[in-house]
Amino acid sequence: MKKHFFSIVVILLIASNVHAQSNTFNTTGKWGSQIFLSDVNGRAFENKYADINGTAYLFPNFKYAAITLTDGRKYNNVKARLNLLEHEVNFIASNGEEGYIGKGMVSIITIVDTTKQGAINYTFQSGFPKTDNQTFISFYQVLGGGPKCSLLKSINKTIEDRSNELSGEKSKEFIVREQLYVFFKGEMKRVKKDKGFFTALFVDQSGPMNQFITANKINFKSEDGLIKLIEFYNSL
């Protein structure tokens, strides 16, 4: 009888230890680094957009992401999505809870979108100086960056009212607005998609920049062309 009782105690202790390990902070595997609402001053998810056409998110579905908090903590393979109306991160914790990370707590998020052509990474960063309607917590997509300057895209979503002229029916929908910026010498500069803007901006390297623009036939209306230009300037 005593032997049987001892065996039960051992089994319970092992089960308790396994349960404790499953709730530790840095377990790895399918979920990568675990993240809980309590870790990030989070709040539970609330669907506020059920009656609005479209989506507040970069991608409506959750995708795997790497998240870096402003205090330096990093989490990998987290199921997350980026809210471009509120500029905050919605995520699913490894214990199945869905919630939002506290505003201003995420520094960088890289979302992986799996397509037929392969995986595409979308990196968004916050913490840039206030400009136009953007604040310190606003996320910008990092199109190209380096030690001297970065090409950033502001993607903002707003809710607008719509009215059907024939039926008189009213509705709401998400509208997206985009704007390019260059982060240069600690300042945010709204991009003008012409040669004059960039030659004036990079006047310290006017010779090499003009040669590069001519040799590569840079199209200033193309994001790909501007990315090449920024990368070249960073290499000088």
What does this structure look like?
By secondary structure, the protein is an alpha+beta fold. The chain folds into two domains: 26-191, no CATH class; 193-236, no CATH class. It has four helices and twelve strands; from the N terminus they run H-E-E-E-E-E-E-E-E-E-E-E-E-H-H-H. Strands 1, 2, 3, 4, 5, 6, 7, 8, 9, 10, 11 and 12 form a twelve-stranded mixed sheet that branches. The protein is globular, with a radius of gyration of 24 Å. The model is unreliable at 2-32 (pLDDT under 50).
What is the succession of H and E elements? HEEEEEEEEEEEEHHH
Helix content: 10-25%
Residues in β-strands, percent: 35-45%
Q: What form results from the Cα inertia axes?
A: globular
The secondary structure category is alpha+beta
Low-confidence stretches: 2-32
Main sheet properties: 12 strands, mixed
Into how many domains do the coordinates divide? 2
Mean pLDDT value = 85
**How far apart lie the N and C ends?**
80 Å
The whole-angstrom Rg is 24 Å
Number of β-strand runs: 12
What is the helix tally?
Answer: 4
Features:
4 helices, 236 residues, globular, twelve-stranded mixed sheet, 12 strands
